[in-house]
């Protein structure tokens, strides 16, 4: 994905089918996708698991962003995590054979696409409905979970950006 000459996603207007109050969530996810593809373009695969100064590796960030989106959108839908989601969580950041940049980017793209599609199904009048998070059912709301999904994605996108820059030298 080449660097775009367009303004940031949030300055390109409303996205079709996304409720008005959820536009910022969709904009953040799509912005992260563009930035991540740009920074990972021509990134050396041998640096994928490197942890300069002990920070998280690029591979971890890519796995974690996709995993967090999947988990937070599951909670927002009022469901609990499946055993498959819990296994994915345990594997985040664990170096494994066959994990490469195209695989990680495809997983990320699929999850962002799935998240955007889910946003299209959310009724704005239900955004303040309570939702429990995790085994302890910590309190949140549909909107709280979706906002955190966007914020957390951008936080890790920024961390990934710094790590990639350091590793590329």
Automatic annotation (TrEMBL):
Domain of life: Bacteria
Database matches in Pfam families: DinB_2
Record-level Gene Ontology MF annotations: hydrolase activity
Lineage start: Bacteria, Pseudomonadati, Bacteroidota, Chitinophagia, Chitinophagales
Residues annotated as transmembrane: none
Keywords tagged on the record: Hydrolase
Organism: Niastella populi
Signal sequence, start to end: none
Domain DinB-like: 33-160
Protein name: Metal-dependent hydrolase
């Amino acid at each position: 994905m080449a660097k775009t000459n367009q303004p940031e996603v949030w300055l390109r207007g409303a996205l079709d089918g996304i409720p008005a109050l959820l536009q910022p969530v969709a904009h953040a996810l799509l912005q992260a996708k563009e930035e991540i593809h740009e920074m990972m373009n021509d990134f050396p695969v041998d640096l994928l698991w490197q942890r300069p100064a002990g920070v998280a590796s690029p591979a971890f960030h890519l796995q974690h962003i996709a995993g967090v989106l999947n988990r937070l959108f599951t909670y927002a839908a009022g469901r609990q995590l499946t055993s498959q989601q819990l296994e994915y969580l345990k594997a985040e950041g664990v170096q494994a054979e066959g994990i490469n940049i195209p695989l990680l980017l495809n997983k990320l793209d699929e999850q962002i696409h799935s998240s955007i599609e889910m946003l299209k199904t959310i009724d704005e009048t239900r955004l303040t409905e309570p939702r429990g998070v995790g085994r302890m059912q910590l309190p949140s709301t549909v909107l709280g979970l979706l906002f955190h999904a966007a914020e957390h994605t951008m936080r890790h996108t920024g961390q990934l950006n710094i790590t990639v820059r350091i590793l590329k030298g």
